[in-house]
Every structure is written in structure tokens, then in C-alpha cells.
Amino acid sequence: MMNTQDGEQTQADGQPAEQATAELSAEATAVRDAYAFEGGRIHLGAMIEGVEPNPAVAVNLAVGMLNRHGLIAGATGTGKTRTLQVIAEQAAHAGASVFVADMKGDLSGIAVPGEASEKLSARATARGQEWISRAAPTEFFSLGGQGEGVPIRTTVSTFGPVLMAKVLELNETQESSLGLIFHYADTQGLGLLDLKDLRALIQFLTSDEGKDELKGIGGISTSTAGVILRSLTSFEASGADVFFGEPAFDTEKLLRKAEDGTGIISCLELPGVASRPALFSTFMMWMLAELYQDLPEVGDAEVPKLVFFFDEAHLLFKDASKAFLDQVVQTVRLIRSKGVGIFFITQTPKDVPGDVLAQLGNRVQHALRAFTPDDAKALKATASTFPTSEHDLVEVIPALGTGEAIVTVMSEDGTPTPVAITAVRAPESSMDPAGAEAISAVVTASPLAEEYGTPVDRESAYEILAARAEKEAAAEEEAPEAPEAKRSGGSSKDSSRSAKKDEGGLFGSPAVKSFLRSAGTVLGREVTRSLFGTRRRR
């Protein structure tokens, strides 16, 4: 079954769906009715009855329910990426902005119209799909300019201590100490733009001179600081420093649409960071945290603002602290009211914590193989997470072929649909990679390339602060009594605090001078933080 432009459902042969009702089995009729949503629909494919798909029984996903989140799971090579592509391209054509991460480089074809073939036409017909060749408007991004795409960067200060602790693989004690370091930088108005800034600040605060600065809010042990510094040095040496800096990316750029109202697909190209998987997964969590922070409440809408596909989701949760997991759960639970839907893509549902899994109303499960006792256990656990079905899912799931899946989605009344064994439709965009030339052309034509393409080092901030440090050092050499006069003459709380800080040698310290090389926030402005410790915009 397929949808025509005026919304009427028809068979592949053009006959109205109701004419075929008498020919359907009771199960097929139940599935057809359960997935025939009134509003906008994403066509996932056709129900498999026996061994062949029945084009008269469409399996759909309600566009308005995309913000109920989802899971696309299955073993490697079973069709997860194509299912992602099918949902993403239709969501964009429905008017939702889309974000996808291309970990292996095989999703870039979403920017190129698909190429017709006899095999593709036969597949589409068998699934009740009226296939056309088209691609949604696409932007290509890269982390820090590693590879093709408009660079996405953020500052260390904006990234925040919780997410930084995750990428540095710190334990709870070390994470708490890192939070103290960020708090000090925030209250002193010292911006952390890149990893060198953070390293220099840690070195200063653990020095004899800097320890006094932390007495009012606590302290950091030398051993803990040493662990953080070693982790930071290793992280920086891996090349991760390019992801931190300016211009910092504004996540609202992910919500743009084309002039005709079609959602733009933001495709983050990630082959260059395959050796740092935890970084890319945490970076994507930062994007969600930023969106959660900035977007207004909209409740349920006919079309979500953004559908966010989180590939290789298991990497996000691996070795994550309780504080981190709590924040992920909170984000997933609450961001749907901001018009954002999240789809996690991984191998089995057990890769996703139970509290997160409970929030995922739309489920597409491709084949799993049970080669070991652990595999068999995971298979049974996966089958148990689906609604009761007349099928033995423990037997059905391993027997699924490539491009086949069991599906249950959130209906418009908030209840799960019955399980449907589904042959997934073909993408309308290309299933082959777009190629370097095509990607380069898209990036060159992007209006974001000029805005974010060139790294910025705000030397003006360093010059201002370094000049202040040199001026104060020169004043002390010429008039040793000046600091005493300065302390006694200060009337305001701010000037008194500043004088006390300068007396301790804050701006005269070589470590702080190194730190100030990249710092750029206005002195005295305290930063407020929100979800995940990310920095609130003003």
C-alpha cells in the first residue's frame, strides 16, 4: 500500500485499498488498520505474510509520533542504515529537519537522487511503493574540519565538565574535581576555548600559587589533577584538540529548512574520527543538550522540528558515569516536548539503558544471530521488549533476511501498534556513497562554509588581558607600595576581589599567561550552566 499526494491509499496496481479488504487475512487486516494513520505518514514498507510481502498491507510510521523517539536495531549487514535512510528522507520531505551521523561513509548518498533499475522497481512494487528518484536538501558537516564538511566546533567552556569527563574517561571523583575547575573558570570570567586553556588552568590551580585560589570553594588533590592532566594530554595528542575552538557552532543551524519547506538533512561525516568513537558520540550528546537548552516548549506538533539519528548508540553508554546516564535519560524524556525526536541505532536493545529504552516508542528490529549463549540470551531479551504477538519472535528475529524487520510504532492515540513483520521499502536517494566530488560541491555551495570554515583565535582577548598583566607587573616594580594602596583604596566588592586576586599573582603567573593566550570571555562575568553542565547562552 502507498500514499498518493492527496492522501488516498491505493494498491500497487492502482485499485483502492478497500476493494482488497475481503482478500486479507485477519492478521493482515489488523495490521493494515493499526498502521493506517490519519495524519502524515512515513511508509516503512509492507507486511510480510508467509514468505512474501503483501503490498496491500502498508506498515507506516506517523510523522506526528516521531518525537516519541525510536530504536533501529540489528546485527551488522541486516539493513539498519537503509531503514535509517528511509525514515530520514521521508521525514525531511514531510517538513522536519533531520540530523544523521555517517560513521562509515555510506550515508552520504542521501544527498543524491537514487538511480532506477529493474531490481529496484520490482522491490518497490512488492512493497506497495511508488518509487521516485529524489533526494532532500543536504548539508555536510565534519567534526573540527576532519574530512569533508562544514566544521563543527565548540569551546571547552561550552562543552562543560560532565561531557568532558565522559570523553576523558574520568571516574566520579575526578569528574567532581573537573567540575570544580570549570566552576573556578566561570566565576573568574576565564574562558576555556580549547584544550590548551584547560591544561594551563589545571596546572595553575595545582601550583603553590594557585592553591590559594581554591581555598574558598574546595581543593584538588595532586594525584587527581595528575590523572586529569594525563588524560587530557593523551586526548589532545590523539588529535581531538581540533574539535574545540572557535567559531563555535550554533546548533540552531540544524533546524533550517529549504525555501519550499522541505527539511534540510544535516549529515555529519565521521570516517575520520573512527579511532575516537566515544568523542563523536559525546559530541552528538552535546548537540542534543544545546538544543534542549535553547528550544522553546512546543508540545506535540504535526511535524517535529528535528529528527535526530544517533548511530552507534552503544558507544554513548559504554563506561558512562551515573551522572552522565541520568542526564541522558532526562534529555530523552523531556526533549520531545521541544519538538525533537531521537532515534538510536545499535545492534541490540540491551545496548541502551532500560530507562532510555522505555522512552523509545517506535521500534524497528532487524535480524539478530544467536551463535553463542550470550547471543541467545540477548535474543530472548530483545523479543521480550516487544508487545505480545502471535508470532514466536525468538524464532522470527534470527530468520529475518536483509531489509526485513519486525516493527511496532506509537499510534496517534499513544498506544503501541501490533508487531508487524515488515519488508522495508527502498530509499529514494542513492544507496551508494555520494563521492568526494559531490560532497565537495555541496560544501562549497553551503552558506555555512564561510561562517564556520576558518578557525578563529581571538588574539584580541589575549592582548587585552596580557597587557593588563604586564601593566600591573610594571606598576609593582616601579611602586612596591601600590598594591597596598590599591587594596585599601578599593571601595566596591568587585574591585576588592580583583585586587586580592592580583595580589596573589594570578595575572603574573606564567601558567595563567599561557592560559590567557586563548581566553576570551569578559572578566567578572559568571557563567551559568544547565543540562550536562553545558554553558547557557545569554
From TrEMBL:
Stored SUPFAM superfamilies: P-loop containing nucleoside triphosphate hydrolases (SSF52540)
Pfam name, any one: HerA_C
Domain annotation Helicase HerA-like C-terminal: ranges: 56-537
Compositionally skewed regions (Polar residues) per UniProt: 1-13
Top-level taxon: Bacteria
Coiled-coil residue windows: none
Signal peptide location: none
Region (Disordered): 1-25, 472-510
Name of the protein this chain belongs to: Helicase HerA-like domain-containing protein
